[in-house]
Amino acid sequence: MIPRATYRVQFHRNFTFEQGARLARYLGTLGISHLYASPILKARAGSLHGYDVVDHRRINPELGGEDGFNEMSKALRQHGIGIILDIVPNHMAVGGADNPWWLDVLENGPDSRFARYFDIDWCPPGAALRNKVLAPFLGRPYQDVLQSGEISLLWDETLGRVCFAYYDHRFPLRRSDYAEVCAEAAPHVADLSRFNQPHALHTLLERQHYRLAWWRTASDQINWRRFFTINTLAALRVEDPQVFEAVHATVLDLFARGLIDGVRIDHVDGLTHPGRYCRHLRAQLGARAAERPALSRDTEPYIVVEKILAPGETLCRDWQVEGTTGYDVMNSLSALQHEPDGAAPLASLWARMSLRPADFAPEERLARRQVLLSAFEGPLAAAARAAQELMPGSVQAHDVTEPALRRALISVIEEFRAYRTYATGEAESVAAGSPFWNAIAAARARAVAVDQAAVDYLGQVIDGQDYPPSPAREQAVRLFNQLTAPVAAKAVEDTAFYRYGRLLSRTDVGFDPDTFSLSSAQFHDQMCERAGTYPHALCVTATHDHKRGEDQRARLAVLSQVPQEWARAVRQWFALNATFRSPLVGSADEYMLYQTLVGVWPLQPPDELQLVQLRQRILGWREKSLREAKLNTSWADPDDAFERAHADFVSALLDPRKSAVFLNSLNDFVKRIAPAGALNALVQCALRCLLPGVPDCYQGTELWDFSLVDPDNRRAVNYDVRKAMLDSALPPVQLLESWKAGTVKLALLRELLALRSRYAALFEKGDYVPLAVEGRRRTHVLAFRRQH
Prior knowledge:
By secondary structure, the protein is of the alpha/beta class. The strands form 6 sheets. An 8-stranded parallel sheet has the order 16-15-14-5-2-1-18-17. A 3-stranded antiparallel sheet has the order 6-13-12, with no helix packed on it.
């Protein structure tokens, strides 16, 4: 079931299955074979993304429920369009009062039939959390919340339980406490008021299967695995067959009924055994294929994984998936469009302007250490303990102390340039891989003598040298892998990328900022390997996770061709705007702001209303970029004065009454580079459709996409405009003359998808053959042949 082309749609309460059904004719005319849907299972009320699932048994009623999904599927099928579904096997939303599995665990503790569903350590060190779950959902310290009366005991009619209530959160009372608390009365009429004073509440809370805590304690004390650092997303143990079945029952049923044709697996690196999970999922989907409608009964499911590949890393071949969701191609296409001669002058300019490192590696190392120690202290301690448990009787670990082992973990994770290893600690485990051993070597070189033995020991534990398979070793390897993956995501994507500003087009999801550009030969090598290994993986240039829209990156890439001109413009802008600049606005942040303004500036000078709208978008990006960088403010500890200074600076720059000279200069600069950026964007669109793989179009990006990081890249799409443009058959000359409207990009996409339909076998099975280019402008031409 190889899609010809997919179209990603973000469903939420303001864009439901009904609206999705209305896209059927438009997508069919565009040339799309599959709608690529965001998660559709029941999520937390009001969710704008669907990754916070609370019930795997139901299709989200906010989106239209099962009936709405069936109707959308029927409408799409009438236009020859199937569905690829984004699924979330790694975690689900907790806290609140809407996850029945989690509420049962809180009520019944280790005896809950759902206790094994979540990745909970019921026997952590110390007695405070023995057979308890840390519940870090309080907005203030526990004592303050208790004294203020913010926690109360009540009967919750919806849940049918006696619960401790804290705003929207509900914490069920143990059933064994009902007789005492209700004084033999029926729970729904019992007088619970005598418990609603601090001492009585605390005494009763201490007997429960959970321990209420201030949210800030989670990083140090949490005894269950979170998704990254989010306290309201708890990890699932899908390696357990019973959990797998419960999590995937609806998805398997949708496939058996022919309503979906494949899946996209979210955050595959969070799973205990990614490869084993993928193989098992394919087998389970395949087992239901015989139940599908007759026309699709003999087809294999299409499966791709959300996976960020490190430089030089390839996806394991035995996972039995079609490949990744395409961040790797997005990175390669971007690097191809950057002029290599621009790397050095732009790095020098960045270092002078920002007083930060010219290269990315020091930023990554610093961010990894900071994030690890500030947000993952609990998982770090657990990983160290698990490794230490293998020490008794070990000659190799004779001189390894517990503090040295913790320092070794920190040093290795600082140097690790991949998300995780795929070693398992089992007898048939794959090797830990070169990124891991490179990290071991780098950590050892930087370690003092007393810690080198600990680094060596850690390498032996994870890779298996001298340590036979055992449950203890499997646990040590698992905890290491499930620590490195979220640290990489939070430290690199969500921290260092917001600190390093040599050129923002090279810091996006899945990108390698150290690789500034690719030559045609290097790009060809990558595509030849892709054609030979994963010819049906997704080709994307925009996603719901991207930090900058595909055409914004294409425009910013032009700066690599004119670094001197860019430097002159930036110095002029710094001088022009000095009067608006607070001492709290650093030069690094100002420099990245100018890049962002160049990237998003409209192709036509904005009117007053458009300028107001642009200001709001930039202010949203500015707040997020500063908080993610975690240098002077953060989500956990926002600095109001610092953020206000930046907001005032942005507002002054985008106020034509104050900064008309700057805005005119900005507009002139963008006008100079925008045509080259548009050409880059068209080349990018063409390559996405012609390279080995399945081209994906993110919602709305069939026209120019100058979006910023979410929520900006998830704004409502005006499909009426796009439908009208698609139906208008303008001749090529007019398309080029009116290129600023974006119709030329839409027309190109339609033509290329029609080509893929006409020559389906060529693009599904054909070879990728690089062609040599001769002549004076040979470095400006990328030539290849697709043949079958």
